[in-house]
Amino acid sequence: MSSTHEHIKNYIDYLVREHSLFVTIHSRGDRYPPICVRYADFNMHVNRFCLYIKTDSEIWEKCVLSQQKVCDRCSEGSWLGMCHAGVVEYVYPILTEGKPADFVSVSGYRPAEDSVLYPKAMHKLSKLCREFGLAPEDVRKVYEAHLTTDIPDKKKVDTLIEPLCDMIRLEYLETRESSDRRGGRPGRDDLYYHICNSIRNMHDHKISLEGICAQTHYSASYISHLFKSRSGMTINQYVNALRIDEARAMLDSTDMSIQDIGLTVGFSDANYFSNVFRASVGVSPREYRNRFRKSDNGKDPE
Predict the structure, then answer these.
(1) Can you give the pLDDT of all 302 residues of the chain as single tens digits?
(2) Radius of gyration of the chain (CA)
């Protein structure tokens, strides 16, 4: 891992920890090396509203496709916008070779009821519910509970995010030079991040080592050794960790049954889901939900 890459990850951690910014990095994906592949841990919005609606795979696909439209607009510079689900976000383009191919998003906001953006957000939420058959009252509840109206001033965000864009641009140049020296073949870092990114995009579906090998054209032993040496986990352990993280968010923010949550995040057996959850979190899914709601409300859940 390059020193620039390490600096970028540390800086994003700083933005999250000290400034409470939901920072993600996205790519058009039509060139090598796509920057977001190297930042699989920062490629998905992790606020609970986004996790909630993305449990629907069709909505997830729409979110991915919408990134293409955002990239197309990046030539205009940075701006404050709103996604198809009514989430307000800042967008900062990353220009490489004179073309906007990647962008940084600072998200997790919603307009206040007295804002001029509020009617637009409600229209987008209503359209989302109609298109995907969601219950408007449930979506609205999660939207209001887990997105904040405290949208920071753009000058402040500019000061924090523009240096990040510069660092990512520098790493792209370093990575491109390294790729050229290898004749265009991906290095171990790029292959590892590509695997992570693929798993993140498909972790609610059946994932197999054989499928990853077929996609990457590397042997099972090579992929297994590479992934374990870099992550400290097997691919199956990594998949389950992603699923458990998503299940925790759904237990926190929805009233879905525990069985439905397990199925939604990719577990085909409810008992296996409960066993994996308990081994990872230390309590059962039901105990976790009850503890969260007790601490959130200050009283025992009904």
Answers:
(1) 568 878 888 999 899 889 999 898 886 554 444 455 556 556 666 677 887 787 677 887 788 778 777 877 877 789 999 999 999 999 998 877 777 668 899 999 999 999 999 999 999 999 999 999 989 998 999 899 889 999 999 999 999 999 999 998 888 777 666 655 555 555 676 778 778 777 776 766 777 888 888 877 889 999 899 888 888 888 888 888 888 988 887 888 778 899 989 988 888 899 999 999 999 999 999 999 988 665 555 444 44
(2) 20
Task: Output the CA torsion sign for 15, 16, 17, 18.
Answer: positive
Long-range contacts of 276-279 (CB under 8 A, 24+ apart): 276/240, 276/243, 276/244, 277/244, 277/247
